[in-house]
Amino acid sequence: MMKRRIFTLVSVLALSMGLFSGCAFSDDTEEEEGESQSLTVEDRDYYTRFKGDGISINVYNWGEYISTGADEGTLDVNAEFEKLTGIKVNYTNYATNEELYAKLKGGGTSYDVIIPSDYMISKMIKEDLIQPLDMDNIPNYKYIMDNYRGLAYDPDNRYSVPYTWGTVGIIYNAEQIDTPKEEIDWDILWDEKYKDQILMFDNPRDAFAIAELLLGYSLNTEDPDELKAAAEKLKEQKQYVQAYVMDEVFDKMAAGEALLAPYYAGDALTILEDNEDLDFVIPKSGTNLFVDAMCIPSSAKQKEAAEMYINFMCEPDIAYANIDYICYSTPNSAAYEMLDEEVREDPVSYPDSEFIANKTTVFVNLSDEANDQMKELWTEMKSETANKWFVPIFLVVCVGIIAFVLIRRHLKKKKDIF
Amino acid sequence: MKMKLKYFSAPYLVWMIVFILVPLLMIGYFALTTDSGSFTLKHVSDVGQYANIFVRSIWLSLIATAICLVVAYPVAFMLSRMEKHRQGTMLMIVMLPMWMNFLLRTYAWMTLLGNNGIINHLLGTIGLGPVKMINTSGAVVLGMVYNYLPFMILPLYSVMVKIDKSMFEAASDLGCSSAETLWRVVIPLSMPGITSGITMVFVPAISTFIISRMLGGGSNLLIGDLIEMQFLGNAYNPHLGAAISLVLMVIILVIMTVMNQFDPDDQVLM
Lengths: 418, 270
Prior knowledge:
With 418 residues, chain A is α/β, with parallel strands linked by helices. Chain A has helices at residues 8-16, 44-47, 77-85, 97-106, 118-126, 204-215, 224-238, 249-254, 265-272, 303-313, 316-326, 333-338, 341-344, 353-359, 368-383, 390-417; strands spanning 56-62, 88-94, 113-114, 161-173, 198-201, 241-245, 260-264, 278-281, 287-294, 360-362. Chain B has helices at residues 2-8, 10-31, 42-46, 51-80, 84-95, 102-113, 118-125, 137-160, 165-173, 178-189, 191-206, 210-215, 223-231, 238-260.
């Protein structure tokens, strides 16, 4: 899930501080020519079908989630696509799955390609917001690894083509936490020793997932009692938590404000660059695996051109350029082969497949009842006020103000009589 | 001539209808209907479960407004009594922080107040232990005061600058001490400034969400956070969001009505 860009502010600042200036693995010296002549695509005829038709497509993606050619020697993927196919790309950004959902649900806009995350895809399938793809138009689907086909959110591979994936783990300050890396598990976020040094996800789905992992429940549980138990667990954690954050993790961890924070692997690597005391671990007991995949909304106007774009994104060279730029993990086997060995064997970006198969769970959309219950429990957990005196004091103040006003008016009237 | 002038306000009237009146009606509509469009009171009654968030928001923004008033009043008075050419410079200094982006200013406080932040760093060098400042309600109030103080100073100043010097002379001629002058002359004459200043600070403060999220650590929600969660956050539910907004508007309306009782001319300064 690409959540790093929720606040424009944070990104602006972070950019100026060089936070995002590159990622851990962008130091390869391979020079790529930014010209389509050097770009090898398998079937050039396939891509030139619409040349001269003046077609344009609207692509709606996460911020900073595509190679833009901004760094020296990287590809401008959209420009390459336009050059190759003659189809104009209108590229816009969103910051959360919910923002994307609200846009599509509200209607009035027409997007041809979107890249939602797993649980949002299943929700959109359920609500008919996205349409089945014609896989004949996406021959490059063959590059998608088996692990990322037929996942729970889209069991028949009809609606989505995986773009990136990643896991959730714990960023921690290795200097000040003496637990060895292998022994760090989710319960460290409940450790009294680190009171006020723990950051926690500020969104219910991710936060509940951690509590559910700890309790041994399924990450997609809809059982009201299990959800309640998970909420209790989170309530218990609240006294140790310094703050509930999303993007702020970048700055807080880099500045040493906190010692522990759960976060997404791709973003964690970016944070690790800024503070060498930090390390990242994916707990052995299991974690959430998230997948962002390309889909076509039901309201799309240029379905075939959109499928062409999706196919283009799966071209080995293009997929490699993107993954090299954004640092998430790729489900594209050809792009994976092109990565440096150092990257391929990095346990953070590419944990071994046995772990992926046995210990990770992909989110699916929960039932409306379970979603509502989770939201309610979450708000209740967060809004619990420590001070019992708020309400009484507030009432007294209100009564005082009203009494004062009434007395004043009364006196004024008296004055007016004289 | 008078009739013709009326037409010049037509563009704003249209603007007001399209961008203020219609959205307000839509909020009311959303708050009182279900997804399928039938009438329901469920969302409004659901707001009740967030009573403590409402109380907390009102409380914190009242404190922030009170601090703003206490801090701004003497500043505005001094400003209004300065020589004309210096007033301009001083006003500019008051306005200066507002030239910077609101988010950036709040963000700066994050680094100032942090556990390893600049203030704690300075305290550390003189031997005082780190003080927990960020992620507290105090930090939220500080953020509100800092961001909205100019909105209190400016209306106060613009009213006070119109108080003629001869008023003070007359007051002292008639035997008023300076405390009495303040209480019987300055405060009554500056009442319109006080009420509009309070409105301009209280209303944005009560509905803020970014300040509480950045400085409050996200563990204690304010109404603004709650509304934001309903529209852009994980709890997507525009009906509940609209209902919360509606209740918030009513609360503000009540508080403003009470406020206007203090205004001697019974002007409605909303």
